[in-house]
Amino acid sequence: MRKSITAFLVASLLVFVLCISPAAIAAEKVRIGALFPFSGPLALLGQESFNGATIAADMVNEKGGIWGKEIEWVKGDGVDPKKAMTECERLISVQGLKLIFGTYSSSRSYAASEVAERNKVIYWEQGAIADPITERGFKYLFRTCPRASQFGIMAVDFAMEVVAPKLGMDPMEMKVAIMFEDSLYGTTVGSSAAKHAMEVGMKVVGTDSYSLKIVDLNPVVMRFKAREADVIIATSYLTDGLLFWRQAREGDLNVKAFIGTGACHGMPEWAETFGDEANYIFNIDPAIGINPEVLSPKTREVLKEFQERFNKKFGHLPATHASLGFVGARVLFEEVLPRAGSLDPEAVREAALQVNIAKGGTIFGFGVKFAPPAHPAAGQNLLAHPALMQWQEQRMWVVYPVEFSLRDPLLPLPTWEERAKGITRFVK
Amino acid sequence: MLTIVLQLIINGLLLGGIYALISIGLTLIFGVLEIINFAHGEFLMLSMYASYWLFQLLGVDPYLSLLVVIPMFFLIGLVVQRIIIQPIIHAPPLNQIFVTVGLSLILQNAALFFWKADYRTVRTAYSTLCLKTSGLMISFPRLVAFVLALAIISILLIFLKRTYTGKAIRALAQERRAAMLMGINIYGTYRIAFGIGIACVGAAGAMLMPIYYAFPTVGALFVLIAFVVVVLGGYNSLVGALIGGLIIGIVEAFSGFFLSPHLKEAVYFVIFILILVFRPTGLFGRG
């Protein structure tokens, strides 16, 4: 009995110390929660997103920090949505944080932001794109990156405005086939593409969804082939996306344009797996490597500094996810917090709603303006949008919107027979 | 239309061959040891990694790696049976399930720990090679997997029919106690049966490598289908597992094309339930 009482006392003392000490440190540092999947299957890109954000913090800290105080990250590991919730809870109640920065994964962000909102703590989302995250009318949630539905809409617009005219086809006669994996990400992007295509009056010849667990995509290949699709719009994670392209080759499925919307079709694995067969595929993502003309002179310098610092710290150049983390953190540290004057959630909210960065003001080229609480997408950066890229010579180049682009889109997609003969459309 | 139907049959059969090969190992283990091996998918995953590393580190072609992978997984099977399965062979079914599910979790997370969640693939000259005849497309690696699966199953059947060990395995599957009374070394036979089961799934993994990707949870994708195949085939019939695999492959190809790829799981689980209701012993099972 005495033993358990002692244990209890020691434990409560520990909890007490843990609760008190952060508050004591908080006087000297600006403490911000970093909630990402740092372990588990999503750890790779979760860590990469956070790495980008740390560069933004380094840049501020070297100039003396915010309000003369250094920024300090307090990490929380959101392995899965449930863990993301408990970690968010811990950061808020045990660590006493007033601002959580995260999360990269939509399902984790959706769950954890719920906790933050309940506690009236700011949740700053830099990279999770599912639309529903900012459709709940939350007051303390802000998101700097574009939404999933914009990816689907852009794919359809590109098919209509660029692919059809380039091929000399009537956009209304063009047959569009849409495929997506059926988790939150794929469903949001795929259904927004299908909806938008029908609204503008294009011929949608198929919308096929499938479970990520699928081991054979031959049926989809055969369906699209039987319906003579001209354009495929695909939302795939890695395995299913790679599997489809392999089986498209085996099944000799030839279309005029293939537009991926993030994940698989924008990953280095795409080119690593297929080599030259990766070429001509389009992909939509927040773009890096856009035409520098779009960026303001200041942003161009920031971009250069970011790339140099990131390369020095992590040994490779930043890709999309690291850049998303950087942009999210930079808006927060450079625009919002100095204006807010403290980490008080009400003050941060007010300051965030006043942010108005014009086009060219972030390294993605888009501006920042958050939707007010009454807006259907409250907290969303309304100026954020992705860009469309094409794999040319195993590298991704921005080709759309035109003012962001450095190269022209190459159309149509060569048939498998042409590829086998080594016919390319590259302009040397 | 005719070409489409023929193409679907070809696709289905080729896919079914792979399912069959994964399922025969499961069937053998279930039929003889009366243990449901929930870690079966993880052995598939391990063999895919084995084949992957042989290719990456030593440049061994995935098909050639069969010569290494099959004996290696037979040995792994023997060891696992001796250390993990043997102590629970007479335990209540619930305990057996806990042990094999636990084993599967350990293997999955060990793979995640050692090899990360990355998707690994091998690039061979024939990975997307395709044979074309009169409008029909036959994927070369899938054809090879299909033919090899048939070959392995035939060899296994002959082994079970002709050799003493094979007969002992069959005897154990039919009647444990009678086999024991006839002087069969039951633990030795269990070990060999388990080893063969794991060797089969090892072979399946090596043959999957040119077609699919290795990652820590890949086993779960295939093993679910394997369970349906085993039930369809009748729990302890190897021929049943072969035909069950082919049927599921064809069902998948047709339902994916004519209904929706989204519904293919629903379709074969409906079949699964129908078999359990109307023919609980499976197509080839003994009552």
Mean residue pLDDT of chain A: 89
Separate helix tally of chain A: 13
What is the end-to-end distance of chain B?
41 Å
Using the coordinates above, name the CATH class of chain B. Mainly Alpha
* H/E element sequence of chain B: HHHHEEHHHHHHH
Find the count of extended strands of chain B (DSSP E, 2+ residues).
2
Biggest interface, residues from each chain = A-B, 34 and 39 residues
Give the low-confidence spans of chain B: none
**Any idea of the CATH topology of chain B?**
ABC transporter involved in vitamin B12 uptake, BtuC
CATH class of the largest domain in chain A: Alpha Beta
The Rg value of chain B, from CA coordinates, equals 19 Å
- Please indicate the count of domains of chain B: 1
Number of strands of chain A: 12
Radius of gyration of chain A: 23 Å
Strand ordering within the main sheet of chain B: 1-2
| CATH-scheme architecture of the largest domain in chain A | 3-Layer(aba) Sandwich
Q: Which stretches of chain A of 5+ consecutive residues score pLDDT under 50?
A: 18-26
Question: In percent terms, what proportion of residues of chain A is strand?
Answer: 15-25%
How many strands, what sense, and barrel or not for the largest sheet of chain B?
A: 2 strands, antiparallel
Give the helices and strands, then pairings:
The complex is a heterodimer of chains A (428) and B (287).
Chain A: H1 2-26, E1 29-36, H2 43-62, E2 70-77, H3 81-93, E3 99-102, H4 106-118, E4 122-125, E5 141-143, H5 148-167, E6 175-181, H6 184-200, E7 203-210, H7 218-226, E8 231-235, H8 238-250, E9 257-260, H9 268-274, E10 282-285, H10 297-314, H11 320-340, H12 345-354, E11 387-392, E12 395-400, H13 416-420
Parallel strand pairs in A: 1-2, 1-3, 3-4, 4-5, 6-7, 6-8, 8-9, 9-10
Antiparallel strand pairs in A: 10-11, 11-12
Chain B: H1 2-33, H2 40-58, H3 66-85, H4 93-115, E1 130-133, E2 136-139, H5 140-162, H6 164-174, H7 176-181, H8 186-208, H9 218-233, H10 238-259, H11 264-278
Antiparallel strand pairs in B: 1-2
